[in-house]
Design brief:
The chain contains twelve helices and 14 strands. It is an alpha/beta fold. It starts with a helix and ends with a strand.
Length: 577
C-alpha cells in the first residue's frame, strides 16, 4: 500500500510533464498558424479585400495551418487595421481549449476527479501594415532614349512612360485600400540627362546660391575684364559678395552680381527670349556635398546649389570647326580663352540679339523639372504624376550620379524638397528607382567635332568645365587625362560613393539597366555599377540562397514585365510582421 501512495506523485509528475509538453506544442502550432494567417491576410487586405472577406480569409488560413489541432477547439479574433487605435496594424488572437491526456487520470488517483482539468491557452500575433511608401522615379531622358528598344517597335522613352505609369497605377490602387493612413503612397519624378532641372520657380529658394557665395559660382568669370572696358562700371568683391562698383552703374551701383544677374541682363537684351531665362538646372555641388543629402546652409556656402550658366564661347572658328556653345557676340579681341571670359559682353546690347535653340546659357539643361513627392491615392495626384511622366523627352548626355542624388533629395524629409516624411519615421520606406540606357557621359569638344581653343577640356555641363577638376574629385581617376573614357570612369566612381551614402541612410535603391550591352566596355561598367548600387531584397533570394539584389537588366521588349516585378517588390514592402 505504501508503494501505491508513493507512486501517485511520481505518476502525477510524469503526467504533468507530458501534458505540459503537449500543451506547449499546441500553443506553438497555434502561434505559427496565427503568424501565417496574419501575413497572408495583410496581403489580402492590400489587394482590396473587404472587411468580411479579410476576416473569413484569416479564419480559413488559420484553421488550415492548425495541423493536429481540432479547429473546433479554437476561437479566432481579428482586429482589422481601421478598427484599432494605431490604424496600421492587423491583430489576430486565438484561444485554444486543450484537454490534457494524463492529468485527469492523475486527478482521479488522488480522489479529485470532479475538478475541471481542461486548459485554456491564449496566443496573439500582430502584423504592422507599412502603408507609407515614398518613391522617386529617377528616369533617363538622354538622347539615346529616342532609340528603338530591343525586342520592341517603340522608342525607349515611350516604353518607359508606359511601364512607369503602370507601376504608379498599381501602387496607387493598393494605396486606396487602407484609407485611414494619410498619403500612403507618394511618387516623385526626377528626369535626368546631362543635368537635373529643379524648377525655375525655385530661383529664390533658401537653398539656392542667390548671393554668389559658393566657391564654384564665379569659377568661369574674369571680373577684372569689366574695368578694362569701363573703369566706372566695375564688378568687385565687397565683403564676400560681388557687387557693381562705380558711378557708371548709376542707380544699380552696389547691387550684387550673380549668375542670376547675367540671366536678367541677357533677358533684357533679347526682349525676353525664352532661352535667355534660367531654365532651372543646377550644377553638382563640390565634393563631397554633391554626393549627399546634406542640407544647404548659408554658413557653409559650398553646400548651396548654384544655377547652371554656360559661358558664351568664342566667335572664332578653327577652320571649319566652331566651339560647342557660341551664343553671344564676343565684343573683344584676343585669344579664345580671353574672349570667353570677357564679362562686359553680357552687359551690352548686340545687333539682332537672339539665342539659337540648343545653345545659350542653358546649354546641357534639357530635361523637364522635378515633380516632388505627390500622393497618388488621389485623382489629382495621380494625374500630376502621369502628366509629368508623359512630358518627358529624350535629349542630352547621361549623368546618372546627379539623377540619383536628386532622387535621394526628393524622398528625403529635408530641403530642398520637404514633401517626404521625417527620415526617422518608423513604418515608412524611402525608395529611389534609377533607370538608365547608357553609360555616364561627359564630352570633350573634339569628340563632338568642335574645337577647344579656350582649353575648357570639355563641353560645359553639370560639373562645369572639366578643366576645373570637379569631375575628378573624390576619385582615383587621372586628373590629367581629359578624355571621354576617363570622365566616365570618374563619374562611375562618384556613383559608387553616392550609392553607399544613400544606403547608409536607409534609402532603398532599385536599379534598372535598359538595353545595355555587356560586350561594350563602358556599358558593361554601367551594368556592374547599377548592380553594385542596388539594395538587397527583404523577401527574395538568389540562386545561392542569399538576398537577391534589387537590380533588373531589362530590354525594351520586357521592360513592362520588369516593372511589374518591381511593383511586386514594392507591394511586399508595404507590410512587415
Amino acid at each position: 500500500m505504501l508503494t501505491v501512495f508513493l507512486m501517485i506523485p511520481i505518476v502525477g509528475g510524469v503526467a504533468l510533464a507530458i501534458d505540459y509538453t503537449q500543451a506547449s506544442r499546441h500553443r506553438n502550432i497555434t502561434l505559427n498558424a496565427l503568424d501565417a494567417a496574419g501575413m497572408a491576410t495583410a496581403l489580402h487586405i492590400l489587394k482590396g479585400a473587404s472587411d468580411e472577406e479579410a476576416k473569413q480569409y484569416a479564419k480559413e488560413f488559420f484553421e488550415a495551418n492548425l495541423g493536429p489541432i481540432d479547429p473546433a477547439m479554437t476561437k479566432l479574433h481579428v482586429v482589422l487595421p481601421e478598427n484599432n487605435a494605431g490604424g496600421s496594424t492587423l491583430k489576430l488572437s486565438a484561444t485554444l481549449n486543450y484537454d490534457p491526456i494524463f492529468y485527469p487520470a492523475f486527478q482521479a488517483m488522488r480522489g479529485a476527479s470532479g475538478e475541471e482539468t481542461a486548459m485554456t491557452i491564449s496566443a496573439s500575433s500582430e502584423v504592422r501594415l507599412k502603408n507609407t511608401v515614398e518613391v522617386a522615379l529617377v528616369l533617363d531622358n538622354s538622347g539615346s532614349m529616342a532609340y528603338t528598344g530591343l525586342g520592341s517597335g517603340k522608342k525607349r522613352i515611350d516604353l518607359l512612360k508606359e511601364a512607369a505609369k503602370q507601376l504608379v497605377e498599381t501602387m496607387a490602387g493598393q494605396a486606396g485600400q487602407v484609407k485611414q493612413v494619410v498619403k500612403p503612397v507618394q511618387f516623385g519624378i526626377v528626369p535626368f540627362a546631362a543635368s537635373v532641372n529643379v524648377g525655375p520657380e525655385n530661383a529664390n529658394a533658401s537653398w539656392m546660391d542667390t548671393d554668389g557665395l559658393s566657391p564654384v559660382h564665379h569659377e568661369n568669370f574674369n571680373w577684372d575684364t569689366m574695368e578694362a572696358r569701363n573703369p566706372n562700371k566695375r564688378v568687385e568683391l565687397v565683403r564676400g559678395i560681388y557687387r557693381k562698383v562705380g558711378k557708371g552703374w548709376k542707380e544699380e551701383e552696389g547691387d550684387k552680381v550673380t549668375r542670376f544677374t547675367l540671366y536678367d541682363e541677357i533677358k533684357d537684351r533679347t526682349r525676353g527670349d525664352v532661352d535667355a531665362k534660367w531654365a532651372g538646372c543646377v550644377e553638382m555641388r563640390p565634393y563631397p556635398h554633391g554626393l549627399s543629402d546634406e542640407p544647404a546652409s548659408w554658413t557653409r556656402p559650398e553646400t548651396l546649389f548654384v544655377p547652371m550658366f554656360a559661358p558664351d564661347e568664342t566667335d572664332q572658328p578653327d577652320g571649319r570647326r566652331r566651339p560647342p556653345n557660341d551664343w553671344w557676340a564676343d565684343q573683344t579681341g584676343g585669344d579664345a580663352k580671353f574672349r570667353q571670359e570677357f564679362m562686359p559682353k553680357y552687359f551690352h546690347a548686340v545687333a539682332n540679339p537672339s539665342i539659337q535653340s540648343g545653345q545659350g546659357p542653358n546649354y546641357s539643361c534639357t530635361t523637364r523639372p522635378i515633380t516632388p513627392l505627390t500622393d497618388v491615392a488621389s485623382a489629382a495626384g495621380m494625374k500630376k504624376i502621369k502628366d509629368s511622366i508623359d512630358a518627358m523627352r529624350a535629349d542630352g548626355a547621361t549623368n546618372v550620379p546627379e539623377g540619383m542624388a536628386w532622387g535621394w533629395r526628393v524622398v528625403s524629409g529635408r530641403a530642398p524638397f520637404t514633401e517626404g516624411r521625417d527620415d526617422a519615421e518608423r513604418g515608412n520606406d524611402k525608395i529611389v528607382i534609377v533607370l538608365t540606357d547608357g553609360a555616364n557621359t561627359y564630352y570633350t569638344p573634339e569628340s563632338l567635332g568642335r574645337h577647344d581653343n579656350a582649353g575648357n577640356k570639355s563641353t560645359y555641363s553639370n560639373y562645369g568645365y572639366a578643366k576645373n577638376g570637379r569631375i575628378f574629385e573624390g576619385t582615383t581617376a587621372n586628373w590629367w587625362d581629359y578624355s571621354n573614357d576617363n570622365y566616365t570612369e570618374a563619374m562611375n566612381q562618384q556613383f559608387d560613393k553616392l550609392c553607399s551614402n544613400a544606403k547608409d541612410e536607409s534609402i532603398i535603391v532599385i536599379t534598372v539597366a535598359l538595353d545595355l550591352d555587356d560586350r561594350k566596355r563602358a556599358e558593361r561598367g554601367q551594368i556592374e555599377a547599377l548592380e553594385r548600387c542596388a539594395s538587397e531584397s527583404r523577401f527574395r533570394k538568389d540562386g545561392n540562397g542569399k538576398p537577391a539584389k534589387l537590380f533588373w537588366n531589362a530590354t525594351g521588349g520586357d521592360l513592362a514585365e520588369k516593372f511589374k516585378e518591381i511593383a511586386d517588390e514594392l507591394s511586399n514592402l508595404r507590410f512587415v510582421s
